[in-house]
Specification:
The protein has 363 residues and is of the alpha/beta class. It has ten helices and 19 strands.
């Protein structure tokens, strides 16, 4: 086994062993607290540009399947695990995680103290890091500090579709447009299961093109990175809001709805990433266990007058949901589609369809 290191921006060094693809990489180091779903994590576009650490110690025990994927490629820059399973056991498994990472040219490191790394991130916040075989640690640290910060890069441009894609089934009843900021496959699957024809638009599509297609509803998808890097599409988002077409914003889509109406966003110390994030619905007074994957949030200090807060994260009281007071627009900070995570919040898609039905009935 080849010894390599995970080096953090602050100079911390964690020695482990290489698996997957053998190459030096850099990225923002983050952790996820889900106990299962490593393949969905790896392929979630919201992890673009990041080195991911699952807090669960054993990874790969049920192997790799053709179905548990959320995009067309692995999105993380690197993968850090305590221990990986070389001989998985599952009837759908086609390879182990070592071969999966190698096939997709994603470096991994195992055999290090992931608990210690996660404790550091929780205490000091996320930071840039590198999985590297370079023994000159000082030069690695200098290189990490010389590159562009994760916050400054527009990763949405890398994960969004480059052209319009239409997904139609024979029983389609509703015409839904999805602004692809890094859409996950399960969002499309859940819309299709509710008899929706889904048209996916690149993130920088003109609002006029979407509105003129006469959709019954619009979804602004999740995606990676800082919403401040997408200020050039805020006018398009605002046009969509005032088209009076029902809109559902998820995660990054939620942040862009808020920002387009005048709200501000900020970076969380270490983000919300995992399948066990408690969110309270302020109207039903119910608490839901949700899946989340984001490093930024909407500031509750500057909520536009047109919006009202509908959900809060019970861990830190950050804004987890908004709705427009007069228009059929609402948004959530968490992943209603899960993958991985609990399915408790799939009802959000039913509420979205109900807004579409109500809109049709009012005409």
């Amino acid at each position: 086994m080849k010894k390599i290191n995970l080096v953090l921006q602050d100079g911390s060094v964690y020695q482990g062993y290489s698996f997957g693809h053998h190459e030096d990489v850099m990225g923002e180091v983050v952790f996820n607290t889900s106990m299962t779903g490593y393949q969905e994590m790896l392929t979630d576009p919201s992890y673009r540009g990041q080195i991911l650490i699952p807090t669960y110690p054993m990874i790969g025990n049920y192997g790799i399947s053709l179905s548990d994927i959320e995009s067309n490629e692995i999105q993380v820059s690197g993968f850090v695990v305590r221990q990986y399973c070389e001989t998985p056991s599952h009837n759908n498994s086609i390879m182990n995680i070592d071969k999966y990472l190698e096939k997709n040219k994603i470096p991994g490191i195992h055999g290090l103290d992931t608990r210690s790394i996660v404790k550091k991130i929780r205490n000091y916040g996320v930071m840039m890091g590198s999985i590297t075989s370079n023994k000159n640690i000082q030069s690695v640290i200098e290189k990490i500090n010389s590159i562009e910060s994760y916050d400054d890069y527009n990763f949405v441009s890398e994960v969004s579709s480059s052209k319009k894609i239409i997904r139609r089934k024979d029983d389609s009843k509703y015409n839904i447009s999805v602004l692809d900021l890094g859409v996950k496959n399960n969002i499309i699957r859940l819309l299709e299961s509710r008899k929706c024809k889904v048209t996916v638009y690149p993130f920088n599509s003109k609002s006029s093109e979407i509105i003129e297609s006469n959709p019954d509803g619009i979804v602004l998808s999740p995606g990676p990175g800082d919403p401040n890097n997408l200020s050039n599409i805020l006018d398009n988002v605002k046009d969509l809001i005032f088209s009076e077409i029902p809109i559902l914003g998820i995660c990054l889509g939620h942040q862009l709805i808020a920002k387009s109406l005048g709200a501000t966003t900020f970076k969380l110390p270490y983000g919300h990433r995992g399948g066990n994030q408690p969110v309270k619905d302020l109207y039903s007074n119910k608490v839901y266990v949700t899946a989340q994957n984001h490093g930024y949030a909407v500031s509750k200090e500057e909520i536009p007058t047109e919006l009202e807060v509908t959900h809060i994260n019970l861990n830190d009281s950050t804004v987890s949901g908004l709705r427009h007071k007069t228009l059929p627009v609402f948004s959530i900070q968490y992943h209603s589609e899960a993958s991985p995570g609990p399915k408790d919040s799939e009802y959000i898609f039913d509420e979205f369809i109900q807004k579409i039905i109500s809109k049709k009935e009012s005409k």
